[in-house]
Amino acid sequence: MAAAGRPPGRERPQSAAMNAWFDRYLAALGAAGIELEREEAAAVLDVAGAASRSAGARPFAPIAAYLAGRLAAGAGAPQRLELLRAAVAAATDAGEATEPLDLD
User: Residue 54's domain spans which residues?
Assistant: First the structure.
């Protein structure tokens, strides 16, 4: 077997890009210069997961991830990762949502 359990000849192409879909997405937004690092992407997913579990409702996940991204956006790469990891802890510590999202 090849890396990550893939059969020989089916290895993932070596690329600096995290995922080509995100490259196309950013290009469509006119933000092609933004790079998505694997560790940052994993941390954003961790924020969303922690928010969903802690709040007890999945709709809190994308909003928490968005807020964490806004916080991290102005920071340099090492600080972004640190802020995203802090956001995971903050989402966990926030506890259960006692009121629903009022978005109507």
Answer: 38-95
Give the pLDDT confidence score for residue 17 in this predicted structure. 63
Indicate the pTM of the whole model.
0.79
pLDDT per residue over 41-69, tens digit each?
Answer: 999 999 999 999 999 999 999 999 999 99
Give dist(CA 62, CA 68) in Å, integer.
Answer: 10
User: Is residue 31 assigned to a domain?
Assistant: no
Number of domains into which the chain is organized: 1
